[in-house]
Amino acid sequence: MSEEIRETPNGFYRTIKTYVLRQGRLTQAQERDYNELSPVFCIPYEEKRINFVDLFGNTNPVVIEIGFGMGAATVQIAENNPDINYLGIEVHKPGVGAVLGEIKRRNLKNLYIVQYDALDVLENMVGDESVNGFHIFFADPWPKKKHHKRRLVQRPRTNLFEKKLCTGGYVYFVTDWQEYADFALEELNATEGLKNKYDGFAEHQTWRPETKFERKGLNADRVINELFFEKV
Q: For 9-66, how does the pLDDT look when each residue is reduced to its tens digit (9 = 90+)?
């Protein structure tokens, strides 16, 4: 295990990030929605477990999406599944602002956001065996070999996902980068406690809306690969 990513008795020590913070420009609407709504729907990062029952006001299943981008699929899934609670984790302010605006416009009661590093959030704010699913759609593939260590879906990071999932919970990963798909399949197969629901790559989950990155990949004639692993 590399020095950059290693599991320790107190958690996952890291000296690198799985993302680069790109300061995109907010539109006036995004900035307005961010300023008005982040105090309501954004959970501040702190080293304290989130009580999902108190947060959502119910005991419905909880699904976490890591890196939702501009969040079009995120809000559509939340709107289509009002009996499931969603926590979106994203570091980029324009995307957070866009989703906050959609939460208000669609009157969503089942979607909250943490604007922070997802791995820190999982380690310090999410209880073990408290999550019913993880959505990871079109994460940065970090195509250069020297950057592979930044990839989100690899051990021991996948061990952290397994630790936070309840029995029967799932990791649903989608990418248009074939080499990353093969890499993630190998890493998830090697993660103790997770089992592939399919023989290799998964069937397309029809409930997942198409994303902007997906359309971009299809337009470039790239294959969309999906993985669906469950905690056993």
A: 444 445 565 555 556 688 999 999 999 999 999 999 999 999 999 999 999 999 999 9
Write the CA distances from 149 to 5, 87, 155, integer angstroms.
Answer: 8, 26, 10
CA-wise closest residue to 81 among 108, 51, 52, 113 = 108
DSSP 42: B
The tokens describing 195, both together, are: 């089992």
User: Is there a catalytic annotation at residue 140?
Assistant: yes
Which of 33, 54, 140, 182 does the annotation list as catalytic?
Answer: 140
Domains in the chain, CATH or no CATH each: 41-231 (3.40.50.150)
Packing angle between helix 118-125 and helix 157-164, nearest 10 degrees? 40
Contacts of 130 (CB under 8 A, 6+ apart): 52, 62, 164, 166
d(CA 155, CA 152): 9
Q: How many residues are given for the chain?
A: 232
Q: 171-210: per-residue pLDDT in tens?
A: 999 999 999 999 999 999 999 999 999 999 999 999 999 9
